[in-house]
Amino acid sequence: MTTIIFVHALGSSGRAWQPQVAALGDRFKVLAPDLPGHGETPGPFGIEPAAFEIAELIAAEPEPVTLVGISVGASVALLAALDDPARIAGLVLSGGVAHAPGVALQRNLMRLMPTGMIAAVMSGMYAGGRPDCKPQAREDLRKAGKQAFITGLGELAKLDLRPKLPGLKVPTLVLCGAEDKANLQPARELAATIPEARLEVIPQAGHIWNLQFPDLFTTLLADFAA
Fold first, then answer.
1. pTM confidence score
2. Where along the chain do its domains lie?
3. Residue among 27, 25, 32, 24 nearest 68 (CA)
4. CATH class for the region spanning 3-100+160-225
5. Which pLDDT score, from 0 to 100, does residue 105 have?
6. Using an 8 Å Cβ cutoff, are 31 and 92 in contact?
7. CB neighbourhood size of 130 (10 A)
8. 92 near 66, Cβ under 8 Å?
């Protein structure tokens, strides 16, 4: 049975993939871990330690896996895939970047905001605009806390995986919501630089759109994984 490993966004948790886990669990082995410092996993958070944890999950599987990441989770997934591409059957990157120097400003704003304000401001986006998902998103953001964002965004600002992408010969699906304006150009860059990649821009979708349009996300992923 093919294994799919989901990598959640910074400030989120593995349960943010509940719609996909529920829909795909009868056809695939599905893993949706909490990254360090998120959900039920002790911290602190770091992009490279998070990628190492995902790489260990990949190595424990008997066959190559399909690896799915969203937002900063896509960058974590990309790092894990670059570590051992032979163990990756397919890679799905949604709203991800290989290089993001512009997040330094966002990091500085986070320094000025208490955790409660971060959770309140960002929970709508993290819930995919769904009121029923906001309490969970708010709880996950509070658990991750302000420091996870300061650390994660600081590391993301320094990260530059672009020189390594031409050597990543793995079937790759790059996804981005049409309303996720900040990540459209990075998505095009990923799709243009990874040799076996294709890009799909999702109309009306925002950044965390696996919750906004769960059936569409699941369908695209299932077709790709199959």
1. 0.95
2. 3-100+160-225
3. 32
4. alpha beta
5. 67
6. no
7. 14
8. yes
